[in-house]
Amino acid sequence: MYLGIKAVIAKSFARIHHANLVNFGILPLTFVNPDDYEKIDQGDRLRLETRELSPGGELTLVNETKGEEIPVRVELDARGVKVVRAGGILPYVREKRGGGLER
Questions:
Q1: What domain range is 29 assigned to?
Q2: DSSP 64-96
Q3: What 8-state DSSP symbol labels residue 98?
Q4: Rounded-to-integer distance, Cα 40 and Cα 46, Å
Q5: Fewest CB atoms within 10 Å of the CB: 10, 23, 51, 57?
Q6: For residues 24 and 86, what is the distance between their CA atoms, to the nearest angstrom?
Q7: CATH, residue 44
Q8: How far apart are CA 78 and CA 56, in angstroms?
């Protein structure tokens, strides 16, 4: 979160790691085809359009270095999408409460 990471793409996630990513507002994605993992090298420039972000949907990861498109799966339910769009669990709860924390 502090490094400005917006998404993590992996072959799979442990449940706790997945939950931590969502709670910090980081989008967890998995490869539709696990072999696509091998198509990405260190230093490749990647682009991901998230306008079509939907629960359980797919997005296209573009490897601009190699000119390849790689399908990735959104590993979120409807609430997870809302939490990630809000920037994490704390901003999400703040929005639901109407702005600030009441004392």
A1: 7-97
A2: TTTTEEEEEEE---HHHHHHHHHTSHHHHHHHH
A3: T
A4: 9
A5: 51
A6: 10
A7: 3.20.19.10
A8: 9
Whether residue 85 lies inside any domain: the answer is yes
Q: What does the pLDDT look like over 26-42, one tens digit per residue?
A: 999 999 999 999 999 99
Number of separate domains in the chain: 1
Evaluate whether 29 touches 73 at the Cβ level (below 8 Å).
yes
Where on the phi/psi map is residue 74: left (φ > 0), alpha (ψ -120 to 50), or beta?
A: beta
Q: Please name the residue that has the structure tokens 């600030």.
A: 100
pTM: 0.85
pLDDT at 101 exceeding the cut of 80: no
